[in-house]
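Aim 2, interim progress. The first record below pairs a target sequence with its structure tokens.
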Amino acid sequence: MLALRKLINKNLKSSPTISTINRYFTTGTANSISETPSSAYYDELINNAGRDRDFATVQQLLSKRFRDGCFNTNHTFKFISTDISILDDLLKALARLENGFPRKSAHDCLIAQLCRLPRMQDAVRVAEIMVRKQYGANATTFHPILNALTRKKAMDEVWRVMEMMRVCEIEPDVTAYNSILTAYCFSGDLNSAASVLSRMVEEGKVADTRTYDALVLGACRAGKIEGALRLLRRMAYEGVLPLYSTHAHVINAMVKNGYYAQAVEFVMSFAGKDKGLDTENFEILGVRLINSKRDYEAKFVVEEMVRRGLAMGEKLKDFYHVLCATEGYISIHRTSSVK
């Protein structure tokens, strides 16, 4: 009997597949999966198996993580960054996943990882596979591709992908258009941005907070600050809540163009409604004023932050201690006193 146990143990240890599964599922750390499963730990296991080219285990782990309620993350397929030649083997493993959300989610996650590498042609190929094999491809599937291309300002390729979506009977959504709109607005190409906006209206797309954020950015980049303020008023009228970045676009543009008092007035007009927004706005304004050598207005900003109990970054803390906490400093209490 002892000899038989030794033989069984020897055979188990010599099997690559069994050895791999044993390593991933019987270590002290892995035992914690059944108790407190986490996406981060599943990512570690999947990347270990992927680097070992053990795609049977990759498939098993992908299936199990969904049963445990652990969704895929930006780190799930990091192992392909060191060896893209394993992509086809990985795709075969993903094709064997349960149809529906597990299979779709895994493919979407893989596309996002390929875009980060960046391997745009491979990302498009995976999207085409999803469409052809009916793995549930939709507009969300193409978002990482569009985002990556717009960051590269490869606008011709962006529009080819949009056309590809239509050919595949996938209607581009407002998020897809927002990526394009942001790219044009960031570069200050307001004519192209206006064309995109007109196309959105024609297709019945409803502008959301990111649409407005892009438009405010475009107006600020073009030096049309009054236009940006009109957009903010339009958002308030329509009940669309601006992003923190939308306020930042206006603050940066005002300081850049020398409208220091107006920038202070702008920040104060929104103060007291959202502490998180106040912290962001006052911090951005204070740093920009210091960089512009506007010590008088910067003193007012840091004093307001102290009075309102807002957290400061290191630059504002240093400025406050050096310039505002000195003898003879006269506190400023009214925005009207800022020249």
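The second target in this work package is listed in the same format:
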Amino acid sequence: MNGPDAGAQAPSFEQEIDASGLTCPLPILRAKKALAQMASGEVLRVVTTDRNAIRDFQAFARQTGNVLVAQQEVDGRGVHFLRRR
């Protein structure tokens, strides 16, 4: 998988959301809600099964200013790490 730190070891995180089985826009909406409750600099891990989630989270990070620290594919699931701005 391409993207920031693809293939690198997973970063540490403070909170996790399992959005498996959900399709756009639900994983993004859940991530947005969780990030709003987190402190600046904290990392959110989001697990998704939606094939479009890789691009969706890249666009979400660009639009919101939250940093997409890494994206990985693990056992057919997308794993996204977002740092709260």
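The longest helix spans residues 53-64. This observation will shape the mutagenesis plan for the next reporting period.
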